[in-house]
């Protein structure tokens, strides 16, 4: 999918506080102090926006990048006037936070009703079909171990796993992955361990999932991560030894955001 060339720069400032927050993942944990303090955007409802046109992309979010190749700003393969954020994870990369990952972690949120979106490009030359899954987005919680809600790619299909306990998480198949083109995803999540939880997903402007019910553990509100996380590589090989994906137009919206603001077409 082609994306609009008229994009905005990320305007995000963070203040460091004395309280420690733990970044929980399937196999790892690290601690840091970080909280959103002041934020400006072209829309009051968009809290965070990254388009990779600035000089320091992801400069003020928490990075879990093990090597120099883990993240770069590169030219859009479909539009030479545009840039995107390229993540690369290799089997032999060192372990970061207890797992094999190349990810960034956004600030903790104070409201359980949030919107998230991004454009995703998966190149055929850097993302061979694998029977094992790759997590490309996750919402994890302090003290919660594995993330309660994730979007994954497995066997060249988009999957979502979500639930209020590790044992009760359900799998939702969003369909086949088409490579070498842009996919635009929008997620509206009312984070809750109870029946009032809501997970809505749009792909390329079409609603592909509505799920009501628990989508987080009975713990603090989740933090959002994007990038590549491949848990199995910490212990064994899979069908491939390299994963490459590209993101663009990453947005985090408040409870007042609407679908049109998140870039759905």
Ordered list of secondary-structure elements with their pairings:
Layout: E1 12-15, E2 21-24, E3 29-32, E4 35-39, E5 46-50, E6 62-64, E7 71-76, E8 79-90, E9 101-105, E10 113-121, E11 134-140, E12 149-154, E13 157-162, E14 170-176, E15 182-190, E16 198-203, E17 206-212, E18 223-229, E19 242-253
Describe the structure.
- By secondary structure, the chain is an all-beta fold.
- Helix content is 0%, strand content 47%.
- The protein has no helices and 19 strands.
- Strands 5, 7, 8, 10, 15, 16, 17 and 19 form an eight-stranded antiparallel β-sheet that branches. A seven-stranded antiparallel β-sheet has the order 6-9-18-11-12-13-14, with no helix packed on it.
Question: Can you give me a brief rundown of this structure?
Answer:
With 265 residues, the protein is mainly β. Helices cover 0% and strands 47% of the residues.
Rg from C-alpha positions? 17 Å
Q: Give the DSSP E fraction (strand runs of 2 or more residues).
A: over 45%
Mean pLDDT score = 86
Number of strands: 19
Q: What string, H for helix and E for strand, traces the elements in order? A: EEEEEEEEEEEEEEEEEEE
Helical stretch count? Answer: 0
Helix content: under 10%
Summarize the main sheet. Answer: 8 strands, antiparallel
Distance between the termini: 10 Å
Low-confidence region ranges? 1-40
How does the overall form come out from the CA principal axes? Answer: globular
State the secondary-structure class.
mainly beta
